[in-house]
Amino acid sequence: MTLTTRMACLSMALVLSLTAVAGEARARSGAYVDLVDYPYNEANWDRFYDLQDHLTRQFHDLCGDTYCEGEFSNHIVLQFRCSVHAPSGSVASCALVIAAGNLEVEPTTGEVVPDSRTWACAAPLAPHTSVEALHTALGRRDALTRPLPGTHRSMHDALFECLN
After folding, report:
1. Domain of 8?
2. Is Signal included in the keywords of this UniProt record (predicted)?
3. What is the pTM assigned to this prediction?
4. What is the rounded CA–CA span in Å between residue 121 and residue 160?
5. 69 φ, ψ (degrees, to nearest 5)
6. Do residues 10 and 39 both lie within one domain?
7. 52-64: pLDDT as tens digits
């Protein structure tokens, strides 16, 4: 490889990396970030995923006797996500995505026929709920059944309405 070719390759690599960095900066230039990335990129990573695992266990403890009866009996938590207004540290919104489904065999063809559904259930948040208040409220043993800070509604209330 000639020196000119090497220089051209290095120049192209530099341009591409600068373009990628600029694109990432533009993507993050909005006022809202994922809770995982508040107050900086991946700052809440472990704490948030521990919270999601806790909510998943809480959901499964309540599910069978409440909102998970009926057409589907195998509801699972797929994901929990929250957005944070970065300048103020207030949680703007959160959603818990639930999925359920059934598989049946078509007797004449042998085809396995899926019947599945997903729900994105919004958390009933009060305006200006802080990240710390949300973590504290949803980290409790009875996180789904106690009202969220500044409200009279719990995640259980929201899930019941969303799933039924």
Report:
1. 1-30
2. yes
3. 0.78
4. 9
5. -95, 155
6. no
7. 999 999 999 998 8
